[in-house]
Amino acid sequence: MAYSYLIETAEMLFLVDGGMAGTGHNILDRIAEIGRKPADLLFAMVTHGHADHFGGLAEVQEASGCAIICHPSHANTVRTGGSIVSPGLNVFAKIYERIAHFALPKLKLDGLRRVIAVEDGTKLHRFGLPGEILYTPGHSTGDLTLVLDDGSAFVGDLVQGRRIPKITPPEFSIMAVDEPAMFASWRLLLASGAKVLYPGHGSIVAIADILPVFRRRAARTARRKLRLTAAAAHAQA
Ligand SMILES: [Zn+2]
């Protein structure tokens, strides 16, 4: 359903997202495969409190004792195993939204402990991870993006990766609580020094690949504003 990313340093492991409930063992298997111990995992960052991004973390936390990092607006959801769903913006996403509203409360996610709520601009260097957490809302109210100093950016659902590599373009999320905020978060991402984006869904994309998508959206927004201004002027006349 959604990707999790395990970042390895000499001092520790850092996880971005934890997948759906029942899939946490995949992360623990990967930790063993690279010759590390669950206790090396010090932090798991939840990019946002949707079930497909933190459902598997209870199993991971049970084995590792890792602390959970999330945005304050989703801390309660993560602590209690709650379910939130963003509104769909097109027909497909509206159907998914309906299914999610029906199915997710039945999943009964386990809540997480040791939850640390972080704000925009949290630097991780003192923990041995050269990077910064940005607040990038729009898809939900609590989206976080981790940007490492080497330009790797872990964007959750802020950007949807290519669904068919090299054919479909990366996209704005088709589910959002606030489209203008999502657009502003893309602007922030483009200015952040990010070079390669690791999304929650779809394949990895280069920052250069989202620039034309951003410009098209900017042009469309400008055209719409112009039409509204012209319509208002016509109505006044
Ligand atoms: Zn999401």
Description:
By secondary structure, the chain is an alpha/beta fold. It has a single domain (5-208), classed as 4-Layer Sandwich (Metallo-beta-lactamase, Chain A). The chain has seven helices and 13 strands. The protein has helices spanning 24-33, 51-54, 57-64, 72-80, 91-107, 179-190, 207-236, and strands at 5-8, 13-16, 41-45, 67-70, 115-117, 122-123, 131-135, 144-148, 152-156, 159-160, 171-172, 196-199, 205-206. The strands form three sheets. A six-stranded mixed beta sheet has the order 6-7-8-9-12-13. Strands 1-2-3-4-5 form a five-stranded mixed beta sheet. A hairpin with an 8-residue loop joins strand 7 and strand 8. Helix 1 packs across helix 3 and helix 6 (179-190) crosses helix 7 (207-236). It is globular and about 70 Å long. Bound molecules: zinc ion. The site of zinc ion has 4 residues, from loops.
